[in-house]
Design a protein that fits this description.
Elements (H helix, E strand, L loop, with lengths): L3 E4 L9 H16 L3 E4 L11 H14 L5 E2 L15 H14 L2 E4 L3 H13 L15 H9 L5 E4 L6 E6 L3 E6 L7 E3 L7 H11 L4 E5 L6 H10 L6 E5 L2 E2 L15 H6 L4 H9 L14 H7 L10 E2 L2 H14 L2 H16 L5 H15 L8 H5 L11 H8 L4 H13 L6 H15 L3 H13 L7 H8 L1 H12 L3
Parallel strand pairs: 1-2, 2-3, 9-10, 11-12
Antiparallel strand pairs: 4-5, 5-8, 6-7
């Protein structure tokens, strides 16, 4: 059997980090088995689907490096891979299921359904559809619809009966048909429901394995019943646990950003994100944390995916990103970080400024967890004057020894014959001895004077990169404020 899997997001929002993990697991499984990954768009929700969201999904896939073999923008033997362009196909299937007796027309209005639902709940009965229209003779039902009466199409769920799902992650799960009403597959408007469109696509695209979130587990018996009514074999299912926040609750915006794009924009590297997402429910073995994508492909097995909820922790993600950032070559880091520096400044760098950044970049690289931190760390190099952070000033410059440290440093640095990292450090170390100050008390005021904050690359290297004239100007300007 050739493995055929699909990632089928709805373009009704930005690609969620949970969706990114689902896409990754499908990709890993397909690549592990030499199979085919299909990317389709479940865009039948016309009111909420937008081109912006659709483009974001493609951008997210490409950022993660997850290529697909069939589907949107790639094509393939199954025509369009957008559900909104396959509506006629779904209607033909619904009609065929009516003809075979596996589905029937329902003429119940929304008002009638609501009235019966409320009555059932009041009497303690299940509120699902009571199957009222199932007994209508098919010829009579067809005549009523042909006469203009609005009708939806419902699947005739076999009764009594049960559907057993053999899930690679969750094991065997049995759904008694008493808990599944005759659900709508085609609305009276002619639009398919998610259940019909998804099932027809899986059959048409010959999907062998359905890897998706556990929020769709309750839909699985419905999809299996539709597929069987179409005469297709059951695919193999694997339902992934949903992502939770560190507090154990389902991941939501209260835990921070949930859109994949937010992490790309914050300077998380794609390889770090892939590595982190892969470990949210799957272990490569041997207690490894940092795993190359090629190794993931070689080891990935859906049977090893945990059914327990996985915790999406941004602090752990940033730690992992820091590992990947430090592993970059200096030139790679400078190139990756430069757009974030440009964004922080609101302008591009001149050739001279780019050279200065390239020189100091390795020092910034060692303390960077996210690339969007870089702009604030090196801003001082590219502005004519710095604005002092009020908290930094109060915490550092208001201390008793700060004024003496700044004024003495100005004198010692002005007297230097050579402006180099070594000469700067020697002069300031001697100053600390003479003033009997610790490095924290004597050097932190200089950092604030130069950069406006307490966070910057190493001080001596920062002074060398800034140059003698600008360094002395800034220290003198800070001294004048005491």
């Amino acid at each position: 059997m050739t493995v055929r899997v699909r990632f089928a997001p709805s373009p009704t929002g930005f690609l969620h980090v949970g969706g990114g993990r689902t896409a990754l697991y499908n990709w890993l499984f397909a690549r592990r088995h030499g199979g085919t990954l299909i990317l389709r768009s479940d865009d039948t929700d016309v009111a909420r689907s937008t081109p912006e969201f659709a483009a974001d999904i493609l951008a997210g896939m490409r950022w993660l490096g997850l290529d697909w073999d069939e589907g949107i923008e790639v094509g393939g033997p199954h025509g369009s891979y957008r559900q909104s362009e396959r509506l006629e196909r779904y209607r033909r299937v619904a009609d065929a299921l009516i003809d075979s007796g596996d589905a029937y027309l329902c003429f119940c209005t929304p008002g009638e359904l609501e009235e019966r639902r409320a009555a059932a709940m009041a009497e303690g009965r299940p509120p699902g559809y009571d199957g009222r229209c199932r007994s209508i003779v098919s010829a009579d039902a067809a005549a009523r619809r042909d006469g203009g009466e609005a009708a939806s199409v419902r699947l005739a769920v076999p009764r009594p009966g049960a559907t057993v799902v053999h899930d690679l992650v969750r094991g065997e799960i049995t759904f008694d048909h008493r808990s599944i009403d005759d659900f709508v597959i085609l609305r009276s408007s002619g639009m398919p429901t998610y259940h019909l469109a998804s099932s027809v696509d899986d059959v048409d695209y010959e999907i062998t394995h359905v890897v998706r979130g556990e929020d769709l587990l309750s839909s699985t018996p419905k999809h299996m019943l539709i597929g069987r009514a179409m005469g297709a074999p059951d695919p193999i299912y694997a339902h992934l646990s949903l992502l939770h926040g560190p507090d154990g609750r389902k991941l939501s915006k209260r835990h921070g950003d949930t859109a994949l794009r937010a992490y790309r924009e914050a300077g998380i590297l794609a390889d770090a994100m892939v590595n982190y997402l892969a470990l949210l429910g799957w272990s490569p073995g041997e207690d490894e944390t940092v795993v190359a994508k090629a190794d993931m492909v070689e080891r990935f097995d859906l049977a090893d995916v945990s059914k327990n909820p996985a915790v999406f922790d941004t602090q752990k993600l940033e730690w992992m990103n820091g590992v990947y950032v430090r592993d970059l070559e200096a030139g790679q880091f400078a190139a990756a970080a430069r757009p974030f520096v440009v964004a922080a400044l609101g302008r591009d760098l001149s050739d001279e400024e780019a050279a200065a950044f390239a020189e100091i970049a390795p020092l910034v690289q060692e303390r960077t967890k996210r690339l969007d931190e870089v702009g604030d760390q090196v801003r001082f190099l590219f502005v004519d004057r710095v604005e002092f952070d009020e908290k930094a000033w109060q915490k550092v410059m208001a201390k008793p020894d700060a004024a003496a440290a700044v004024r003495t440093a100005a004198e010692r640095l002005a007297a230097l014959d050579e402006w180099s990292i070594e000469a700067i450090e020697a002069a300031l170390r001697l100053m600390l001895e003479d003033l009997e100050l610790s490095a924290r008390k004597g050097l932190q005021p200089l950092r604030v004077a130069l950069t406006g904050s307490q966070v910057s690359p190493p001080l001596f290297e920062s002074m060398a990169a800034l140059g003698r004239e600008r360094t002395l100007q800034r220290i003198d300007a800070a001294a004048a404020l005491f």
